[in-house]
Design goal:
There is one protein chain. The chain is α/β, with parallel strands linked by helices. It has a single domain, classed as 3-Layer(aba) Sandwich (Rossmann fold), CATH 3.40.50.720. It is built from 10 helices and 8 strands. Strands 3-2-1-4-5-6-7-8 form an 8-stranded mixed sheet, sandwiched between helices. Helix 7 links the parallel strand 4 and strand 5. The chain is globular, with a radius of gyration of 17 Å. The two termini are 31 Å apart. 45% of the residues are buried.
């Protein structure tokens, strides 16, 4: 790190659990953020400001006026702009040292097969069940840890799916791709504006912990938030031996 970086990241470096070595791991890391909306906004801004060296942003959608109530990376003068490009602008405005790559297409299987193996961590900030399953499958195949979050109305959830550890479930162990739920969108039920900020911030924290090796991740645990009461609950997760993606087995390093 140069002198400017030592100053910029000094509040991280002062943390005994992080220090210079932990910050250097962040600078050397590559985060793949899929979805640049309500969850992707705080994830991208926090990872960029914290000093993740490289970020790949994937989103095919454009900024709409209805997004501005909660998607804090976007601005009124970017209506009609691609969301990944808009988020990239906001990240670079905070920290121009971050290398940001923008993908303005959909997160499909061929794209994921290319992007996921290059990443240190994948953060799923999407709101589509099929896309979530495709992301999970790629992460299982390439053994890259996945930080998954969801937010709708006043309810949020977040977890880490890290198949590098023994006895760890994947996303499909909990949400089987064989029984897709009825799709419900923010446009139908609405979403409490700060909810996506809370869940997205937890996702960013988990991504930083995974990259630096600090603390204990949410792997094997699902956190659920009821923002009406501001009450968190936790469920312990187990691998599903009948999982169609991972089979509930650990295949070693």
């Amino acid at each position: 790190m140069n002198d400017d970086q030592l100053l910029r990241y000094s509040r991280h470096i002062l943390l005994d659990e992080l220090g210079v070595e932990g910050q250097q791991r962040l600078l050397d890391a590559h985060a793949l953020i899929i979805g640049a909306g309500g969850l992707g906004s705080p994830v991208g801004l926090y990872l960029g400001s914290a000093g993740i060296g490289r970020i790949t942003l994937v989103d095919h959608d454009e900024v709409d006026a209805t997004n501005l109530q909660r998607q804090i990376a976007h601005r009124l003068d970017r209506l009609g702009h691609n969301k990944a490009q808009s988020l990239a602008q906001s990240i670079i405005a905070i920290n121009p040292d971050v290398q940001v790559r923008v993908v303005t297409g959909r997160a499909d299987a061929p794209g994921l097969a290319h992007w996921v193996p290059q990443a240190s961590v994948v953060i799923d900030c999407t709101d589509n069940f099929a896309t979530r399953q495709a992301i999970n499958q790629a992460c299982v195949q390439h053994r890259v840890p996945l930080v998954s979050g969801a937010a709708l109305a006043f309810d949020g959830q977040v977890s880490v799916y890290d198949r590098r550890g023994a006895g760890q479930p994947c996303y499909a162990c909990l949400f089987s791709p064989l029984t897709p739920p009825e799709e419900v969108r923010c446009a139908t039920l609405g979403v409490f504006a700060p909810l996506v900020g809370i869940i997205g911030s937890v996702q960013a924290a988990e991504a930083i912990k995974l990259v630096t090796g600090v603390g204990t991740s949410l792997a094997g645990r699902l956190l659920m938030l009821d923002a009406r009461r501001m009450s968190w609950s936790e469920i312990q997760l187990q691998p599903d031996p009948a999982c169609s993606v991972c089979g509930g087995t650990h295949h070693g390093p």
